[in-house]
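[User] At your convenience, examine this fold.
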Amino acid sequence: MTTTIAALPDHNRLNDPLWRKLFHSYRHVIAPLRHNGWVTDIETCGGEYHVRADLGDGTELIIASEYSLPVDPAEVTGWMVLRQNIETPSQHSVLYDSTPDRTQAHHGNGLIPMFARIDELDVPKITTQLMLSGAYSAPYGASHTQCGPVEAPGTAVARYFEWTQWLAANDGYRQVWERPEADGYPLSFFERVGHAVVARITRVDAVDHLAVARTPHSDDLDHLPVARSDG
């Protein structure tokens, strides 16, 4: 078993039904932060919810929406990311804000722009480069593989969640299996009337970035910039 994700927070709420519900509902935000190496939690104090990630340098990220996070993530209209001093929360700055009428409002509730900004932070984090890939197969024998850009862990894992959500919501695929988080990088299997997709995040130790950039983009994933290699 390969551990690629930060440990769970150490507190007595891990078995609380509300905490577990929110932690799972917002795993598309929490998992990318944990793959950056940061212990990440859901705060539920006073009936207001937000994601909190310890950056390991005395500061933390607070991720909410226009106000606190709704119980249903489908109601999120944008993300507000605050970086604050853990000991002195009044010392803080807004890192990213895509809520309505704010600076990055055109990104809405998209994950990739938010994590691209978070990954720019000069803080202790995992520096492994990752890549999203999708292997398609059809009942008549045709198959092809698509690869995304080489990215920092947070952005790559956020891209995985955006794409797999798209497969289910827009392309009619059904997720039938997903590898447990503790067993390695995200990996899942989808099917649709004899068609199958394996979506995975892999570690990239050496890659020709220019070759990836030059490869034509796939029509299937225009909503997520990717490079394509058929075979």
Notes: Helices lie at 17-25, 27-35, 112-118, 153-169, 209-214.
